[in-house]
Automatic annotation (TrEMBL):
InterPro entries referenced in this protein's UniProt entry, alphabetically: DUF6925
Species whose genome carries this gene: Paracoccus pantotrophus
The name this protein goes by in its record: Uncharacterized protein
Pfam families per record: DUF6925 (PF21973)
């Protein structure tokens, strides 16, 4: 399984339509390709770098891929991804609670970064040690003076030093790392994250203590440590609408068959067969499980994007695709 998984993930590394993420619910590093950039450069093993950042997978032992779909707040779309999960208790992070100097980053993706100093921000997350890296002696000195205190402490001056300096951000997990070399989204970027690799630290989400969104159907006992975000058939990497891509749709449905929940996958097939046979919505009882209900709604949205609208499909959507369940905002990579 590990060799086969490594081969599949390795092949997706150079797919410029796919993105990657590592982090937790509130502290995440994302790697996305940017149209028009030079092709990514492969790393030894399973990884790539571009001029904006990079991603590497080192240890796939115990890893379980979970392919999933989730509702979008927009009724003509849905979300999708593959969560790369480890068992609880095997996450391998340090869970530091204060800013901590780790020394030179010997594991950096590029040779020129291995002498720079790595600092763990001390966010105490179960699946990621969220770090920054710098060779700027002024910033390094200022951060050393703040070590031993949480960066989220109102008295800490660490974030005030970090934000305008734009050091590299490094998300370390047991299975690998993502590095982001672009600027931090904020005043210097017009208040928005740069296109391509970027990071988010959201204290309000960190305070929930969750490892992932409740809308992502991760089986009990598993924790997502990284995410693969294959090409969406309905939106681009910036979350904008696109024409339906039948190839991307078929490719992800194959991933869902291999790595997704078999019962929800079968439910979608049952819905599509009922539509093809002209059956009314009463032919199917609404599932009691929230994720199964979401799968039913997603199947109807997918049928409309794939096959076009119809009077029968409108009846099904009126019966089942109601705005009764919360959905995450569309943001590929989160």
């Amino acid at each position: 399984m590990t060799d086969m998984l490594a081969d599949r993930l390795g092949a997706l590394m150079t797919d410029t339509g796919a993105g990657w993420s590592m982090g937790s619910f509130g502290a995440i590093a994302e790697f996305h390709h940017v149209a028009g950039d030079p092709p990514p450069q492969p790393l030894e093993g399973c990884g790539i770098v571009t001029e904006r950042g990079g991603v590497r997978l080192d240890d796939l032992a115990d890893l379980t891929p979970i392919a999933w779909e989730a509702l979008s707040p927009r009724p003509h779309r849905w979300q999708q991804g593959v969560s790369l999960c480890l068992p609880e208790g095997r996450l391998g992070t340090a869970r530091r609670r204060v800013l901590t100097e780790l020394g030179p980053d010997a594991g950096a993706l590029r040779d020129q970064d291995r002498g720079a100093v790595l600092f763990d921000l001390g966010l105490d997350q179960p699946q990621v040690d969220f770090c920054i890296r710098s060779d700027d002696p002024v910033l390094v000195a200022r951060l050393r003076a703040e070590c031993g205190r949480s960066v989220l402490d109102p008295e800490s001056r660490a974030m005030a030093a970090i934000l305008p300096a734009h050091p590299h951000r490094v998300a370390l997990t047991r299975i690998g790392r993502i590095e982001v070399w672009q600027k931090i989204g904020g005043p210097d970027t017009g208040g928005i994250s740069p296109v391509g690799p970027h990071t988010h630290i959201l204290p309000q989400l960190l305070r929930t203590g969750r490892t992932h969104s409740a809308n992502t159907p991760i089986p009990p006992g598993l924790v997502p440590v990284a995410g693969l975000h294959p090409t969406s058939p309905v939106m681009d990497s910036l979350g904008q609408d696109r024409d339906f891509d039948a190839t991307a749709f078929a490719d992800f449905q194959a991933m869902l068959a291999d790595w997704g929940d078999a019962e929800r996958h079968a439910l979608k097939a049952r819905v599509w067969a009922a539509l093809e046979a002209g059956e009314p919505p009463s032919a199917l009882a609404e599932p009691g499980d929230r994720h199964a209900r979401a799968a039913l709604r997603i199947a109807l949205r997918q049928a409309e994007r794939r096959d076009g609208p119809s009077a029968l499909l409108s009846q099904w959507r009126a019966a089942f695709d109601r705005d009764a369940a919360p959905a995450d905002q569309d943001a590929p990579g989160h």
